Amino acid sequence: MAHTQPTLAGLCRWFQKIGSTAALLSLFVGVSSPSLGFGEEEVVTSTQIPESAPAPESTKVPKSAPAPESTKVPESAPAPESTPAPESTPSTFRTKLLQGPPALRRASNFQGEANASLTDSEIGTPDESSSPIMDRIWSWPVLYHKPENPFLQEISLFGRYHGQFYAVDSAQGSVNGWEARRAKIGARARFLHNFTFASSFNVSTDTVEQGQNTIDKENLDTLTLAWKPSDELQVVVGQQKPGFMYEYDTSSNSILTFERSLIVNQLAPDKSPGLSVEGKFKDVFYKIGGYSGNELGESLSKGFALVKLGYDFSDRSRFEKMNAQLYYLHNSTPFSAGAAPYRNAVSLSAAVQQGRFSGLAQTVLADGYGLTSDAWGLTIMPSLYIREDKLQLVARYQFANSSDPDGLQAQSRYEQDVPFITDGGMGDRYHAGYLGVNWYLYGRELKVMSGVECSKLSGGGDGGDFSGWTWFGGFRLHF
N or C: at which end does the chain have fewer Cβ atoms within 10 angstroms? Predict the structure, then answer.
């Protein structure tokens, strides 16, 4: 099975193209060079004491009333002068963004991906990290940022690169290689305070190596217009990710393993044009979406709908964080280009976090169309920080089962790639155990990962069994 490999030259060309476009837009709105950095702005805090404000008279000690002996300071140890309040240090880009509205803190809020600020769907990932050098580097994609501007508040670039090495050793043969798992680049503009327009593209060799460098629907990843007047309501229209199931609802930048569970990969819908409404009322969060199931610009006749309802139990449990989420997906046709051929699918998940420990339990049940077998699966994934917010140990057990002999297929990464697998790697029962470690160099934005998974697929009608080990090693970067 071939995997598309973005090249370094291709990435550079995409950065130049989108960067030039954003720069021209910045000039058009009259951006001056000082506004490109937040370092020039001083923040006056309540602890600062103006130099012109003398100490109140009531605090002075009259000369005729010397201080008691017990309060006198020996001559050899003169009384220290009052320590002035420390000056406010210039805030960095990152600090500004983290202090700003949630729409600025997470690009995923306006890309149709997991909206962590509303659903708390990233339990187990580290808190935001800070480093003067890294803060400065990660501030570069913010080309323009003026919250006080009533029309245009921000122009920025965003993207990700996930590279990984894999080695499979199985009874059906061995295979290894390097894959640029994900390479995306995009631009975002926030305007009128509550609106955000964002678009991202997959960087692939299909156009770059041929010298075309065209931006068309074949490379389009997301194209959304979002309106978010409050945490209670966000409306997103355009090509976006229907976040069905907890694992798939969580951004690929934040998942704790290299690949999602087999049942998730088999049932998850593709990014599709649609309209979604989501929000959070106190401890209840929700999402309702309708999607065309076709590529952008094509007929809207093959649609599917998604409903999500969740509850935050953090204040009512013994855990620091705890939430539960129920997902329901209905597909109106087995011929949808965006959804798998299952009529109905339901998923229930619960996630907890306590100190350095976090855990996820997820189950899903799907009703297949026609000859498509019914399927269900279970995923349990605990994790533990060996070093807080830096070094994390992750384990996962997954099980999947189908009602027919060939209702499940081996993982496309990378179990199907072994040379002697038969019948495309089809079966009806799948077990897998994963153990890995994540090293967070700069929070979720930059991490190194390594893991090994042992998996077994059996019960195929005419072969298709798989039994083997897969080792992963790689890194993930996003901005």
Answer: N
